[in-house]
UniProtKB/TrEMBL annotation:
Residues covered by the HTH cro/C1-type domain: 17-71
Organism whose genome encodes this protein: Lentzea rhizosphaerae
UniProt protein name: Helix-turn-helix domain-containing protein
Top-level taxon of origin: Bacteria
Amino acid sequence: MPKRESSVVGREFGNGVRTAIERTGLTQRRLAELLGWQEAKISDLLAGKGGVTKEEVIALLAYCRTTAEERGRLVALFLESGEKGWLQFPEDGVPDQVHTFIEHEKKAKKIIAWSPTLVPGVLQIPEYVQVVTEASPVIEADDVPAVTAARSVRAKILDGSRQFVFYVHEFALRLQVGGLEVWREQLAHLLRVSVRTYVSIRVIPASAGMHAGTSGGFYVMEFPKYPTVVYLETLNRCLFLDDAETVKVYETTLKHLAAVALDDAESRAVIDSILEGH
């Protein structure tokens, strides 16, 4: 496979190979010598940039003594790394807990989210998260506490090491998730977070009418070293998109949303007015 820019599925493949190499105790240099490769070839592979053939991947995994199951999974990831986008099927059926997405959130330098129906995930307080989790048709009642805890932990990425822009529809703010007390505390939390210099919360007012974001919510993650990634999720599936053409479509959508969104101060005023009215 010719060298290409690092992709989401390519990095997932590279991380899996890295784990396999670490188990052997071999250094990358020694493994490269055994395979007759340049060390840079392994570095590119681990970074998700390709530059190897399927046969070479199988040879490398043989040196790592991977199991047949692990080898099959990694080879399948390698073959998929040349495709546009990656549809991921979480084993536990809960998109928010997917390791790949969480790891990309942590590495992003900027996260832009559009949420038309609910408060964006990383801005949700634990009580709000629990109500949303309980309402999911794909999460068993026994799993609600664990899923709620896992989703709530994501709020820890809200620090000054990255920038955040959240577009949220006024309807999502007015939707009473949980009892009145939970809902009011959620809105108050948004007001507290909105004054942080690295967080921008911009409301799409109901008066905006039809707009570019009506097709559904999404995340856009920008990185220091990787190409921009768009992340979408359904009830039990996740889709990562990182080809330039598709990313441009979502970036254009964000520009249209920015054109109709209230600014930060106006958005705080809307949230405050909703609180005052209840």
